[in-house]
Amino acid sequence: MLLRNRLLFRNLTSFLPSPSPPPKSVSFILSFNKRIAHSTHKLPESKPQVAASRATKQPMSERARFAKTVLFVPPGVDPEDVTDEIVLPGSNIVLGPYAGHSQIKEVEFVKSSGRVKDCPKDNRPEFAILGRSNVGKSSLINALVRKKEVALTSKKPGKTQLINHFLVNKSWYIVDLPGYGFAKASDTARTDWSSFTKGYFLNRETLVAVLLLIDASVPPQKIDLDCANWLGRNNIPMTFVFTKCDKMKASKGKRPDENIRDFQELIRENYKQHPPWIMTSSVTGLGRDELLLHLSQLRNYWDQ
Ligand code: GDP
Q: Where are the transmembrane segments (predicted)?
């Protein structure tokens, strides 16, 4: 079993108390106050003095219980200490001590790989970006790296079914994966996508987390729910990145925040601990810096 899976398994099997009404100090999340929790890919391991002091705290307070069941509380943060100020806006993500340098200074396309064993072997941490065709994946990658042409590489004919590695700041990778749910793809192409991409998820040791992109301007789609559930079942750490959150539907349909809530409701049965999620827009820049900060804390902890 991969190290990250072993750690995740330990985390998932820990006892999770039932939710309670939120205390006033964490009121920002009221619209998502159902039983959703966080998913960490690793547990804090090297804080003996913190662990000792926690052992004397009992029972868990209402505030800590709420934080643990609704928020993504990263390693190094005591749920008792969570306040509004350390939760990233438009997300359930608590900012912890591992967050650090997050801005992207340089990015270079490294290679396209047709098989997992052809991917770069330098042990740098990586984040895979995955989503339905047209979800806004290219736009998000370009917004993150602030370049127009980067993600276009993977849209070129012949590269759409490949794993594309982009090296950021010479230290970590953004991995552009094939989009799923192509309307025009044949059944055969879809099957190929499945085994190919699933192989990547299950075997890539340096995968820190999957960023699963979900279009917040439309109601939850079965194909996205299936994908989220498959990743969850296989203990692949993930963050839900909701795209197109600038698209307000006043007259018809639901607003992005309502679609996001519906999506969370539909998947929560499948998670003991709910993954981190964040709202973004490539048009307004919403969530960009926050997402980069989140990636920095996952990466820095992974690097330990
Ligand atoms: P991909 O197929 O997942 O790479 O999706 P693209 O990045 O090519 O985007 C698909 C369509 O959605 C394009 O028309 C984009 O202009 C549009 N789009 C992408 N991101 C956003 C967003 O944040 N807000 C809005 N309003 N439109 C977006």
A: none
